[in-house]
Every structure is written in structure tokens, then in C-alpha cells.
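G., the chain you wanted modeled:
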Amino acid sequence: MTEKFDFEQALKAIQSGQSISGQEGVLAPLVKQLTEAALEAELDSHLADDVVPNRKNGRSRKTIKTGEGKIDLATPRDRAGTFEPQLIKKHQCSVSDEIEAKILSMYGRGLSYSDISEHVQEIYGISVSTAAISAITDKIVDAVKRWQQRPLDSHYPFVWLDAIHYKVRAQGHYETRAVYTVLGLNMEGKKEVLGLYLSESEGANFWLGVLTDLQNRGVKDVLIASVDGLSGFPEAIQSIYPKTEVQLCVVHQIRNSLRYVGSKHHKAFMVDLKRVYQALNKPAAETALDELEQIWGDKYPIVIQSWRNKWDHLSVYFRYPEPIRKVIYTTNSIEAVHRQFRKLTKTKGGFPNDNSLLKLLYLGIQNASKKWTMPIHNWNLTLSQLAIFFDGRLDEALDL
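Predicted structure as C-alpha cells:
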């Protein structure tokens, strides 16, 4: 048995300059004593609840790593071999699980390695190097790969696709990486990030590979896809999912339009433009677009021409009632995910490699998805309307 911890002797040791923490620290015997006492209490409770005859059967030696260094424990055993301690599990050689969990939690909130190291030192009195923190967070990489390759549902009523850009170090210098995010709304009306994909640039060819991956992972049909105004994007979607309605993000289009409108005209131009995208129906919107061209066409022909060229995909939402319109006419849903990413990465000038970026964004998704427990507003009504507009396409998913 462990000798009883002598507080007076410990006090004298501290006064003489002996370290409080660490393997040779004053608290090491106390940690050992408390751990062994807790294990004994676990065994007593187990024996009291055991329905078959059982009793204690001596102790075995075990070395574990703690914040106070390595400690040799005398772990109790039972004769029946049914005792499974929870404090220090049978094959566990470390009690750092809590610390690792705290490190991952802090990392997932965007703290730097140096900040994490300082917090761990402050909370636990343990010095953790940035290399050790990197090794701990690297354990997420396998989880990220499994998540990227997981099977998906067969049907998604809505999917949003967009990209966000970061600097990643490659071959001795930083390069821009586009992170392609695919956000879906499943048959339960709940949001789900279907995947993250990295590329050196944003382009329709790469999106084609992303959509092929979704198909290979089990996605058979997407009713409506909301995307930004990337050239060739609708064609890429419809080459994989030919029945999918493609809605270009109206908010993206408005922002792009204002880049070409003089600042002194912004207010007046927006008054006239609102009559287009806030119209009650497509004919009214087209009349408003004609009026917009009459007023502003001479000053800003490139803006009007952009709306004309993209009108087929910009005006898709006019076909549907208000509940569906509100979901699809903008990519705000996916931009909310990207805002979460920016909160995590705002202190990062760049990332040392692709994995360091992916694992942080993955943790950001896990944090954000904790709030996605409820379906979107009026989902049952929206689903009923979709089943009518897309007759038969949801039958398989609804088991009809």
C-alpha cells in the first residue's frame, strides 16, 4: 500500500526549495495516493453491485504518465476479472486525455499554439511544447479523412456551393488555396456540410470533380443548387445532376454590380434594382429589369448586360412560393459557415500545410454543427411544396 501523504513533511520540502509539481515534485506522492484510493473505491463499488460471487485479488503494477510525471500505481484486481476501472482504464498509460481534450477545444476555437501552451501551463502547471500540441492536433487528420470519405444521403433538397481562400505554404513560399465548401439541407430540414475540398484556384473544372465525389459517395439527386456567379458553374452541376435547378446567388450579383456603379449613384441605383429582385413574380421582375435598363443602361451597360446574360439562373427562385424562395435565392447559409471559419482563422497569416488548414476548419464545422439540431423554419410545409414541384423525385427518400 502507498504510505500516507505527510503534509508537514511536504511543507518542509516546499520551504526548502523542492518543486511542487513534476515527477520529483512534492505533489507526486499525493497524486499517486489519491489515484490508488479512487481505484480502490471503484473496485469496492463494483464488488457491491456484482451479482456473482467475486472478491479482491491483489494488485498489479502499472506506470502512467500524469501532469506530475510518471507514476507507478498499484491497481486493484478482482478474482472474476470483471472489474473495468473508469479512472485509469486497463490499457491506458496516460491521464492526459483531459488535457488533450482541452488542447483540441482551444485549437478548435482558433487559439494559436503559443496561446494554448500558456493556458495549459496556467491551468495544469504543465509545459507543453508547440511540437507536442501539433502532434496532438494532428490526430484529427485521420478523423478528417474519414469524414471526407463518409457515405452521404441519397437525396438533398437544397445544396449550397461556395469557396473561401487562404494562404498555405508550399515549396518554400505561400500560395493561395481555395477551400470549396458544400453545404446541404437534408430530408429532415437540417444543415450538413457534405465536404471540404482544397484547390489552388476556384474554377468550374475543379467543381466538376467535387460534384463527382458527391455522386460517388451516394448522392443521387439534388433538387436545387444555390451557387455564386462563377462562369461555367451551372454547366458543371448539370453535367453530373442534369435535373438539378441552379440558382445563382442574387446577393453575389448585387455586390458585383455595385462594383461598377459610381458611389454617388449607389443609393438611387439600388432603389431601382430592388424592384427587380424583390418583384412578386418573374414577369414583374422582367418589366422592372427593362425599366432599370432605360434609366441606367447608358451609364452602366456592363451591369445591365450581366443581369441579362445570367437571368435564366438568377430568376429561378420566382418559380417557387416564399418558403422555398427564402432558402435558395442567396448563398447566405454557406456564407454563415465561412464566417465561422474566418473567426477561427483571423489571427492566422498563413498555414504551414494543407492538413493544418483542414483540421482547423473541420473543428470549426464540428462546433458550428452543434447548433444545427433543429430543421429550418416551416420545413414540413417547404418539403410538401417541393414534393409537388419535383413530382416523384423525392419518393425514394420519403419511402413513398
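The first strand starts at residue 56 and ends at 66.

Shout if anything looks off.
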